[in-house]
Amino acid sequence: MYKLDEEILRSYFRLEKYQEDRLKLERIWHPEKMNWNTAPPEMCATTHIKLEELEKIGYGKDLYMEVLANEKAVRKEIEELATQHHLWVHTQHISCMGKYLTGAFIAAGGDITRAPTVSAFWKGMGLDVLPDGQVPRRIRGKKLKRDKDGNIIKERNIPALPHVTKLGNQIREQIMRSGNLTKDIYDEYKAYYAAKYPDRPNMYNHKGGARVAQKLLYAVLWEEWRKGYGLAAPWPYAFDILNHAREHKLTIYDFYGEKPKRKRNPVEQCDG
Fold first, then answer.
1. Which of 149, 168, 212, 248 is 20 to 30 Å from 259 at the Cα level?
2. Is the sign of the CA dihedral 89, 94, 98, 103 positive or negative?
3. Local structure of residue 240 (DSSP, 8 states)
4. Residue 51's pLDDT is what?
């Protein structure tokens, strides 16, 4: 893994731990009622005793403020590191990205040398598709099968790592708010899925549109990430895998700024 990528990943894992600790402390103190600048809210004797004893062993306001300060400092560290990365040259112009999400994206992507194709990158980011066309996920109550050597027979792939899935959710939320090409793609494919599957719940169409927009954004980011390190980044992916309109080879610049004007053929096939 490249040094800067590793530094971002290390900082991200520290941030996750500080966030986890902060949330634990907030749960103890009921943040919906508690304000650290005022006295604790009225509480029963049991809760009062609990908080007094936790304060004695260090789980009080001082610890909370320390964790909060550490969380803010590491988040700022991630943002500063992200601005030193060659992806920031592009992501600073993409409305659904920013300093923090650029850093989180690099942390989620991990070692880019291990993703020689965009298909491999999509799989690592939890965006691959199974042979039956469904999204990889575990089915509740269904046990994983193993062969005679004890290896798992993957009828359905295990989802991506938690921090990767978290990043994906954050980027999809930003896509919904953006005014650039990602929102354009989302609207287009949501309508496409609604027409193709008129009887299924609209949530499936929403998720399908967001997934295609996310995959195409990840594809161009993967390409620039690889090229920035002098690595090969072969292109037929957006066309051969997603059957994307062949009249327009998408590049990172298409995702810059607000929604650009573009000409596209009607979508005929896109089940990615």
1. 168
2. negative
3. H
4. 79
| Whole-angstrom distance, CA of residue 50 vs CA of residue 134 | 48
Contact assessment for residue 1 and residue 110, using Cβ atoms and an 8 Å cutoff: yes
**Residue 145 to residues 133, 138, 150, 151, 156, Cα–Cα distance (Å):** 21, 12, 9, 8, 10
Among 104, 79, 266, which Cα is nearest to 173's?
A: 104
Query: What's the pLDDT at 133?
Result: 53
| Rounded Cα distance, 197 and 265, in Å | 20
Tokens representing 135 are 């999204």
162 burial level (CB within 10 Å; 0-12, 13-18, 19+): exposed
What is the per-residue pLDDT across 158-180, written as a single tens digit (0 to 9) for each? 556 778 888 888 898 888 888 78
Going from the C-alpha of 194 to that of each of 70, 202, 242, the distances in angstroms are 46, 7, 17
Q: Which amino acid is at 158?
A: I
Do the Cβ atoms of 232 and 224 come closer than 8 Å?
Answer: no
pTM: 0.78
Number of Cβ within a 10 Å radius of residue 40:
15
β-bridge pairing 145-146 and 152-153: antiparallel
